[in-house]
Design a protein that fits this description.
By secondary structure, this protein is an alpha+beta fold. It has helices spanning 6-13, 17-26, 47-51, 79-82, and strands at residues 3-4, 33-37, 40-46. Strand 2 (33-37) and strand 3 (40-46) form a beta hairpin.
């Protein structure tokens, strides 16, 4: 059985080598193993794992919806709308100096 490096696997799957290392750490390649070398450990991925691999969809997994929405204020005011002064704290310019 032939084993591939993270770079070789990344090239075959059209992704970055760091993505392949992440998938190895997450256990997405069930037979991948970390091999210690003088320069540090490297991942070796069996070719069969790469052949049978389905790339996960991009993006985050959506959050599960709560059965009941949290209670909200009924007056429609938001914390930002209630804040006054525009957030400049009396400064006069980007460098924080006051007039004078």
């Amino acid at each position: 059985m032939s084993e591939l490096t993270t770079s070789q696997t990344a090239e075959r799957l059209n992704v970055g080598a760091s993505t392949v290392r992440l998938w190895c750490k997450q256990g997405k390649f069930p037979n991948a193993r970390a091999q210690d070398t003088p320069r540090g450990s490297v991942w070796l991925i069996p070719e069969n794992d790469v052949k049978d691999f389905d790339k996960p969809k991009r993006g985050r997994v959506p959050k599960a919806k709560a059965e009941e929405a949290p209670a909200t204020a009924t007056d429609g005011a938001t914390p930002r709308a209630a804040k006054k002064g525009g957030g400049n704290n009396g400064s006069n310019g980007a460098n924080g100096q006051t007039g004078g």
